[in-house]
Amino acid sequence: xxxxxxxxxxxxRVTRDYYESCAKRTTNxxxxxxxxxxxxxxAFPPLEEQKAIVEKVNTLMxxxxxxxxxxxxxxxxxxxxxxxxxxxxxxxx
Length: 93
Fold this sequence. Notes:
Organism: Bizionia arctica
Mean pLDDT: 89
Order of helices and strands: HHEEHH
Number of strands: 2
GO molecular function: DNA binding
Domain Type I restriction modification DNA specificity: 24-72
Keywords: DNA-binding, Restriction system
InterPro entries: Restrct_endonuc_typeI_TRD (IPR000055), Restrct_endonuc_typeI_TRD_sf (IPR044946), Type-I_RE_S_subunit (IPR051212)
């Protein structure tokens, strides 16, 4: 089994939903026992397919990281523009 595939699977929404459905809740804490963990339904595609899935997910995550940076830069640029406009409006001449 590809370790990266396994980690992506464990962190997937489907798996988290499964754990949430099994969890016992007490005082804002959720717990799950070893038996429930071992009963986690896991789909194991062939190793080559696992590698392809990991590669695709990594590519898409890279795109997401790039988009996050662009959004951050746009927000910073907007803030600088707003500061410039405010300075110009309120500057005493």
